[in-house]
Amino acid sequence: MRSSRLSSPAAVISRANPIRLDQLSNPFGPSPLVLDTLAADLAKPLDRATLFRTLLEQLTNVVGLPASSFFLANGAESILRSLYLTQRDVGPVILFPPSDPEDLRRADTLALETISISRGSTFRPTLDLELVAELPPTAMAVITTPNDPTGTVAGSQDVVRLARACRLVVIDERHGGYQAQSLLPLAREFDNVVVIQSFETWAGLAALPFAYAAGAPSIVRKLRDVSEPAEPSAAALIAARATLNDLIGVNSTVRRVRLERSRLYRMLRKLNVVTPYPSWCNFLLVRIERGTRSEIDRGLRDRGVSVHLPSHRELAGFIRVSATYPEETDALKSALIEISRDL
User: Fold this and answer.
1) pLDDT band at 180 (very low <50, low <70, confident <90, very high)
2) Angle 175-181-185 (CA atoms, 0-180°, nearest 5)?
3) Tens digits of per-residue pLDDT, 245-304?
4) Residue 72 has pLDDT above 80, yes or no
5) Coil, strand, or helix at residue 146?
6) Which of 41, 54, 75, 310 could serve as a FRET partner for 98 with CA atoms 20 to 30 Å apart?
């Protein structure tokens, strides 16, 4: 039976100031240099071609690939749509659920056949040699790492196996700023591997979306052939350039989020109402152990805390909780302890 009783005033989060643990963007926002540069640059005439060229030069220096290996767009979704278009009338798309539901919707919209390979109980894709041998060579594999909503990463060995078996392997690293190591080196080694990286989440630029695909020049040319890229705005180009100029500062906030994620994980492990799963992203996938997901969600919302409810059928008993600030982790703990008393 759920009680309407709330915790003490010190522990209650005001409904007027809800705690958003359902969001993906870096809670510390973009680099201060982004705001300063936008204020200065947008006040004067801009040459968009120069902005584009300057940013591309920065990317070649940071990533270590030639300019011909980059496809720039106004977000990861724009790049993925273009990649899916290259697969029309070619072969199926291989997906690894549970992952972003938009991957499947995108394939359905373009009438592409899909092959689903489950991530299993650990939510990490495991590709044995026998399974890979059965994959059609015309397939395009799309794998998100770290994965949303599970936070798990793909192993380089599994990606190499996919690269040897499939026409194209797309590695979506839009949340990659939080993981320990990028799989970008595989785009240098294999001419059928493309890596998508975005500044939308880890760099706090959700309002100014910018992303790029890095891969063989032949892949980039094909992307440009199938569709006109939805190019980033001038403001997004400026913000991305400023972010690259302050990677030390941005990465310091990423480290703070990682530390809070670890603290959040340890806190949740001590409660008997939920079980958190390890994650390489800025959130945790959390299994409900007592009560139902709707009861937990309703109890949290009553206390001004929002979490994400994954829509995947296999995750009906899970929530996704983002790491933000210590005081918000503490508020979540207080809320869950109080909810557990009424279960």
Assistant:
1) confident
2) 100
3) 999 999 999 999 999 999 999 999 999 999 999 999 999 999 999 999 999 999 999 999
4) yes
5) coil
6) 75
DSSP 308: B
Task: Report the share of the chain in percent with pLDDT over 70.
Answer: 95
The CATH architecture one would assign to domain 19-28+249-341 is Alpha-Beta Complex (3.90)
Max distance between CA atoms of the chain, in angstroms, equals 63
Helical residues (DSSP H) of 190-325, grouped into ranges: 217-226, 234-245, 247-269, 293-302
Query: Are residues 95 and 115 in contact, defined by beta-carbon separation less than 8 angstroms?
Result: yes
Q: Tokens standing for 277?
A: 């799963």
The tokens for 196 are 């998508």
Structure tokens at 141: 């594999």
For residue 58, the Cα-to-chain-centroid distance in whole angstroms is 23
Q: What sign results for the dihedral spanned by CA atoms 82, 84, 85, 87?
A: positive
CATH number of 32-245: 3.40.640.10
Contact status, residue 178 vs residue 257, Cβ threshold 8 Å: yes
The pLDDT value given to residue 228: 66
On the question of a common fold for 19-28+249-341 and 32-245, the answer reads: no
pLDDT at 5 over 60: no
pLDDT value at residue 16: 53
Beta bridge partners of 318: 287
Pull the structure tokens for residue 171: 């590695």
Q: How far apart are alpha carbons 19 and 308 in whole angstroms?
A: 12
For 101-137, how does the pLDDT look when each residue is reduced to its tens digit (9 = 90+)? Answer: 999 999 999 999 999 998 888 898 878 888 899 999 9
Give the CA radius of gyration of the chain.
21
Please say whether the beta carbons of 108 and 155 come within 8 A. no
Given a contact cutoff of 8 angstroms between Cβ atoms, the answer to whether 312 and 101 are in contact is yes
Domain boundaries, the chain: 19-28+249-341, 32-245
